[in-house]
Write a structure and sequence with these properties.
It is a single chain. The protein has a single domain, classed as MetI-like (MetI-like fold, Orthogonal Bundle), CATH 1.10.3720. It has 270 residues and is mostly helical. 77% of the residues lie in helices and 0% in strands. The chain contains eleven helices and no strands.
């Protein structure tokens, strides 16, 4: 006889013993960092990259969310041409690994963008009103931000599409019958309901981007991973260095995950 799951199983939350254990481990590691000179020195070096990691993640995620929403709306447009363009973008970008996309944007896309910009302002350059820019003027950090934006926007577009399509079509038809414009239907009917479906996977992508931001180290961007690589290469203390790098990333990702989970519960309680 098959066991039937308790109806409270998916409603009642277990006490977060895993979090208690994690905090205990974190406090022990913090004590080691404070009392051990080697770990303290590694921590002081690696923590200098936290600002770059946070900046790259926040800017890239905001831009990817805006671009993903735009691509999603294109994919749901009445025009078949716009829908095909959106689908083409999503399938192409989604099929390229993030690391390959980083290299492509940094060393192929950036020079092409600079060349296009210089071509557009060539009349102003000729008249002496503007100066052409060089490829090196576009920093590697911003090339990494652009690559992460493009890479994640395709996944975020699909998250938005799934959320919007989860809204009952009958409610949309009722809003049409009441004479609401397309914008009013989206703002007052579709989006408030869809955001509850969109937020969990969107927050998951946010946490994933914190981790994937470590890939920008391959371009020499001075994030947490790059600072760790440089220190380990010079000191040969690989165990200590990458233990600290892991520790810092876990603080960022788990802290962010807990905050997003609390926000999700707040949204569901409204």
């Amino acid at each position: 006889m098959a066991l039937r799951p308790s109806p409270d199983r998916y409603v009642k939350d277990d006490y977060p013993w895993w979090l208690v254990a994690l905090v205990a481990i974190g406090l022990v590691l913090a004590a080691v960092i404070v009392t051990n000179d080697i770990y303290a020195q590694v921590f002081r070096t690696v923590v200098n990259g936290v600002g770059i990691t946070v900046f790259v993640t926040l800017v890239a995620f905001v831009l990817a969310t805006v671009l993903g929403l735009g691509i999603c709306l294109l994919g749901m447009a009445d025009s078949q041409v716009l829908r095909q363009i959106a689908r083409f973008y999503i399938e192409i970008i989604r099929g390229i690994p993030i690391l390959v996309l980083l290299f492509y944007v940094a060393f192929v896309g950036a020079p092409a963008l600079v060349a296009a910009y210089n071509f557009l302002i060539s009349p102003l350059v000729t008249s002496g009103m503007a100066e052409p820019i060089l490829v090196r003027d576009l920093s590697l950090m911003w090339r990494a931000v652009i690559a992460l934006t493009i890479g994640y926007s395709s996944f975020i577009a699909e998250i938005f599409r799934a959320g919007f399509q989860s809204v009952d079509i009958g409610q949309i038809e009722a809003a049409k019958a009441l004479g609401l414009s397309r914008y009013r239907r989206f703002r007052s009917v579709v989006f408030p309901q869809a955001i509850r479906v969109i937020f969990p996977p969107l927050s998951n992508d946010f946490v994933s981007m914190v981790k994937d931001s470590s890939l920008v180290s391959v371009l020499g961007v001075a994030d947490i991973t790059q600072m760790g690589k440089v220190y380990a290469a010079g000191s040969f203390r690989f165990f200590e260095t990458y233990s600290i790098v892991t520790y810092i990333y876990l603080i960022l990702t788990i802290g962010l995950s807990l905050a997003l989970r609390r926000t999700e519960k707040w949204m569901k309680s409204r």
